[in-house]
Amino acid sequence: MKSYPAPQIFLLLILSFVWQTLIKTSKPYQKCGTNIIVFMNEIAVSMNLYLMFLLTDYTLGEVNPNDYSSFETAGASFLEK
To answer: Could you report the per-residue pLDDT of 37-62, keeping only the tens digit for each?
Structure first.
């Protein structure tokens, strides 16, 4: 897994989106300001992960899409459009 950074980053991006959804729907903290700060932090993490994903070899077309599962390939093709 060490030599496949794109799938790792993509999975972290999915986890970040799930966490953002949980923060918005459940509001885990009592103070509204804390929920907003945590949500904005997760948005910054998602933007950073997306930029990291763009810097991998996966976006340069050097990797065969058959090397990954269909879920990862579908997600990567979704991000490319």
So the answer is: 999 999 999 999 888 877 776 655 55
Cβ atoms of 6 and 57 within 8 Å: the answer is yes
Say if residues 49 and 56 touch (Cβ distance below 8 Å).
no
Backbone angles phi, psi at 64, to 5 degrees: -75, 125
Angle at 60 between CA 54 and CA 62, to 5 degrees: 135
- Tell me the pLDDT tens digit for each residue of 11-45: 999 999 999 999 999 999 999 999 999 999 999 99
How far apart CA 41 and CA 47 sit, in angstroms, is 10
Give Cα 4 distance to the centre of its chain: 15
Q: Which residue matches tokens 């058959």?
A: 66
